[in-house]
Amino acid sequence: MDFVAGCIGGAAGVLVGHPFDTVKVRLQVQSIDKPLYRGTYHCFQSIIRQETIFGLYKGIGSPMMGLTFINALVFGVQGNTMRLLGHDTPMNQFLAGAAAGAIQCIICCPMELAKTRMQMQGTGEKKSSRKLYKNSLDCLARIYNREGLWGINRGMLTTLIRETPGFGVYFLAYDVMTRSLGCEPDDRYMIPKLLFAGGMAGIASWLSTYPVDVIKSRLQADGVGGVNQYSSIADCVRQSVRREGYMVFTRGLTSTLLRAFPVNAATFATVTLILMYAQGVEEGPKDCEAAPSGHHTQIQQQAQPSSL
């Protein structure tokens, strides 16, 4: 049931957060010489005006398709790692989260590559005159035919560098937040507390690894126009800093943080409601009461989302 709830919760999170993600990617990879957007609000405004509201949802098929497998990996690896470590401590939460983050890169990297390519397609056009990719699957198939396995795993190292500590920080922050907020048996605000903890944990996670995400997006978008600009991660960092300064690592941060809270809030709300419906509303407080030394643990294991 955790798996099903996590998948549905993750889908809700993608629906809420994908427009912010599209804006983030557009801001991260736009040319410094001829920028199309002045900031987050202008980017939103321009996409809706030039490409309609559906422009904000370009590339949504890829994260939707990958959700089932990513949630299965994250929930399975995190839960099994916690059982192997034996004790529910903040450090073990970090290690378990980091392990889950590293494993799910196998699916996350190709999924985000297709998402990024689809989001960049037809930039500034209401009706794209020439679509290179029909959908996310077609995008991956074309990249595979042209570049092989190496091509569909473009950005794997940067994804690994981002996801491993990112998920570790996420689970650590969530653990610390839930311990601080507490879970009383008759607390009417249990669900809002979980939503708040998840949202803030998502923000903490993004802040800890955001510079890596900028480089990942640039590497995955590289070559869209037919010309490869970067030869390696180091080359991408060098060129980006030389042309745009160190502030380049904050490109799209506003839309990312605006996205982080509602995405995790939507995921938590959906997961929590499904589990409460399946197990019975009265069972939640009993679970909390049964574990006085770590009363947040049961709810945490049931309601952890896998989407940052």
Automatic annotation (TrEMBL):
Q: Domain of life here? A: Eukaryota
Membrane topology listed for this record: Multi-pass membrane protein
Q: Where are the Solcar repeats?
A: 1-84, 88-180, 192-277
Its keywords, alphabetically, are: Amino-acid transport, Membrane, Mitochondrion, Mitochondrion inner membrane, Repeat, Transmembrane, Transmembrane helix, Transport
One MF term from GO for this chain?
A: high-affinity L-arginine transmembrane transporter activity
Fetch the SUPFAM superfamilies from UniProt: Mitochondrial carrier
Q: One GO CC annotation, please?
A: mitochondrial inner membrane
- Residues covered by region (Disordered): 286-308
| Coarse class of the protein's main subcellular location | mitochondrion
Q: Which GO terms describe its biological process?
A: mitochondrial L-ornithine transmembrane transport
Similarity section = Belongs to the mitochondrial carrier (TC 2.A.29) family.
Q: What is this protein called?
A: Mitochondrial basic amino acids transporter
Q: Which organism is it from?
A: Labrus bergylta (ballan wrasse)
